[in-house]
Specification:
Strands 1-2 form a two-stranded antiparallel sheet. The protein is globular and about 55 Å long. About 50% of the residues lie in helices and about 0% in strands. It is built from eleven helices and two strands; from the N terminus they run H-H-H-H-H-H-H-H-H-E-E-H-H. The structure holds fe (ii) ion. Fe (ii) ion (FE2) binds next to helix 4 and helix 6.
Length: about 375
């Protein structure tokens, strides 16, 4: 009975939340900015009565943090390589970088813009929902301390993430093409671009000196192309992994509705990265090989839909799935932060930044249904 009563109250609150939410949603990225500064949020605060479990709050708070980090890195890509407009303001573009990105697909600036806008909408929504439920939203603004690119086109503001010293793990490429291995069943996967995982490489021009020679700026665009896929496959695993710890049906709906948009991004980026031209960067020796040269499926560029593979147990038939999804496995919150750290995204960040993120991640991974 008590449960029913709570549901009724909840429905009422939810309706008015949706009504007000539409107003905020219509403001797009500008609304997002205001929300990040905490201005319109109090309007929701008094309505958030139906309580969530501690685990649900922990999952939503970690996802808000992850989406803020994603927004920060996508914003940097959009300023130099995307479309700067009222939906995603900031920056004025770098013509040579955009030209190199367009070698992968002429629509790259539009896709970069749209991915950026999506991430802003994700954290803005999740934070607004947390406030509606009486929980604390996530704000990482005090950690916006990393330098911007000095290339013309970028804003000169503090950043949360570093796109200029990346070591991109491209094993997602072979992981989604394997028919016999799954990371949740102990599978290991070769790097598609071995050189990218070893050194530290920029995925945006660090300054205008990076705009030439041609194979150098193309290598930077290629790095971005593979990094886009890396980031979004991470989100594709994170949501279904954490969803298994959710208790409240509406929170589950949020995860099941946002998560697949990460996969839509991943699918697009996988396709575009396959168009990255084979080359060697003359400034640092970074090699982008011809992924179709071996004739093997593990690197074949047009295998952009997940190949069926083993799932749960090898006794079942192979199935096309997102991988990994084992709770608190290699797709969980702690694993995501570990992977982003190894990626170089947080080079230059403070100890306090890592402490805050790791605490959010550990609490999210600890969430269990009904607790
Ligand atoms: Fe997202």
């Amino acid at each position: 009975m008590e449960h029913n009563v709570r549901q009724t109250k909840h429905s009422t609150s939810r309706r008015s939340f949706l009504r007000k939410g539409l107003v905020v949603g219509g403001a797009g990225a500008i609304g997002a900015g205001l929300l990040a500064n905490g201005l319109p949020l109090p309007a929701f605060a008094e309505e958030g009565r139906a309580s969530l479990t501690r685990g649900d709050v922990a999952i939503l708070r970690f996802l808000a943090a992850a989406e803020i980090l994603e927004s920060d890195l996508w914003q940097q890509y959009n300023e130099l390589g995307g479309i700067q407009d009222s939906e995603v303001p900031g920056g004025s573009g770098s013509a040579a970088y955009i030209k190199a990105l367009e070698v992968l697909d002429e629509d790259m600036p539009q896709y970069i813009h749209d991915n950026t806008e999506d991430e802003f909408s994700h954290f803005t929504f999740i934070n607004a929902y947390l406030v509606f439920k009486g929980a604390d939203p996530v704000n990482l603004d005090k950690f916006r301390t990393l330098p911007s690119s000095k290339a013309r086109g970028a804003q000169n503001i503090g950043r949360l993430t570093n796109l200029m010293q990346l070591s991109v793990d491209t094993s997602y490429w072979t992981r989604y093409r394997s028919r016999t291995q799954n990371p949740d069943l102990g599978g290991t996967f070769a790097q598609a671009i071995p050189g990218l995982s070893k050194g530290q490489f920029p995925a945006i021009p660090r300054n205008d000196g990076d705009l030439a020679p041609a194979n150098h700026i193309q290598a930077i665009a290629n790095t971005a192309g593979f990094h886009f896929g890396y980031i979004e496959q991470g989100g594709s695993s994170l949501y279904p992994t954490l969803a298994q710890g959710v208790s409240n049906l509406e929170v589950l709906r949020i995860l099941l509705s946002i998560g697949p948009t990460e996969t839509a991004h991943f699918q697009t980026w996988q396709d575009k990265a396959g168009n990255a031209p084979a080359l060697t960067d003359p400034t640092n020796g970074l090699v982008f090989p011809d992924l179709n040269a071996s004739g093997g499926e593990d690197t074949q560029t047009n295998l952009i839909m997940p190949e069926p593979t083993v799932f749960l147990s090898r006794k079942f038939p192979a199935v096309s799935i997102i991988r990994p999804t084992e709770i608190a496995g290699s797709g969980g919150a702690v694993a995501t932060i570990k992977s982003f750290t190894a990626d170089g995204l947080f080079i230059g960040q403070s100890k306090e930044f890592f402490a805050v993120l790791n605490q959010l991640a550990e609490q999210a991974d600890a969430a269990r249904r009904g607790l």
